[in-house]
Amino acid sequence: MNANAPDQAYHFHVMRRAIDLIDQGGEALPLDRLAGEMGMSAAHFQRLFSAWVGVSPKRYQQYLTLGHAKTLLAQRFTTLEVADAAGLTGTGRLHDLFLRWEAMSPGEFARGGEGLTIYHGCFDSPFGETLAMGTDKGLCGLAFTEECGRDAAFDDLSARWADARFEPAPERIAPWVDAAFAGRGETALHMIGAPFQIKVWEALLRVPTGHVTTYSEIAQAIGRPRAVRAVGTAVGRNPVSFLIPCHRALRKSGALGGYHWGLPVKRAMLAWESARVDG
């Protein structure tokens, strides 16, 4: 991973503590108090956040509030009616980096990954430790371990392809992971799921950085308008978090909905992306 990755993980840990403090207080905290709670000077805390996310701690707190999701729905709601909006028939320019993807055939999926070798390793990311998995064709799993722990994340992902062979080999997938979080280069994805899930994940790939959509909008986009609950389940089963941006799917009410790797991580991702778009 790039040299700045450990700093990114450190920043996430600080931000994760900030989320808890903001939730406890119910309102934005003054810079001096927030910095003091983190055991930092106000100047250091200000520099840390500005370097990581590009905005001041005061502004970032606004993005972390629970009401931010409603603001996103009002101002940055994305319709998904145009199936080829992101060039999904081939390599497309998606959320600031090149993603090249290939879906496993239904027959291959039904065999539970039999005959497949999946490489895995843990990496630092802007959202804490990340467990990544990939085949020779691309990344097939990306989990965030801060809320659930490394072992639980591994068990969760590996159970999806129970008959695959898993091999610890972070060096095999590191270039794809590096490109994913650096926002440059090409990341290959190997999407392993049932046909319905693949359709839902393709729809998520059309939601631009800093924007959001709803579960019902996704259902409309894939031609299954009454399957909102099934869409929500498929969103939650997305194995390649962040790159297939399930964190950008909200409820119509503006509620965040669930997030497989923990709601604090989802809030952090939405805030981080919003700050970069606004900046």
Automatic annotation (TrEMBL):
One of the GO biological process terms: methylation
Matches recorded under SUPFAM superfamilies: Homeodomain-like, Methylated DNA-protein cysteine methyltransferase domain, Methylated DNA-protein cysteine methyltransferase, C-terminal domain
UniProt-listed Enzyme Commission number(s): 2.1.1.63
Keyword set, alphabetical order: DNA damage, DNA repair, Methyltransferase, Transcription, Transcription regulation, Transferase
Residue span(s) of domain HTH araC/xylS-type: 16-112
Coiled-coil regions listed: none
A GO term for molecular function: methylated-DNA-[protein]-cysteine S-methyltransferase activity
InterPro entries, A to Z: Homeodomain-like_sf (IPR009057), HTH_AraC (IPR018060), MethylDNA_cys_MeTrfase_DNA-bd (IPR014048), MethylDNA_cys_MeTrfase_DNAb (IPR036217), MGMT_N_sf (IPR036631), WH-like_DNA-bd_sf (IPR036388)
Entries under CDD domains matching the protein: ATase (cd06445)
Catalytic activity, reaction form: a 6-O-methyl-2'-deoxyguanosine in DNA + L-cysteinyl-[protein] = S-methyl-L-cysteinyl-[protein] + a 2'-deoxyguanosine in DNA; a 4-O-methyl-thymidine in DNA + L-cysteinyl-[protein] = a thymidine in DNA + S-methyl-L-cysteinyl-[protein]
Membership in a protein family: Belongs to the MGMT family.
PANTHER family named in the record: METHYLATED-DNA--PROTEIN-CYSTEINE METHYLTRANSFERASE
Protein's UniProt name: methylated-DNA--[protein]-cysteine S-methyltransferase
Species whose genome carries this gene: Roseovarius lutimaris
Lineage: Bacteria, Pseudomonadati, Pseudomonadota, Alphaproteobacteria, Rhodobacterales
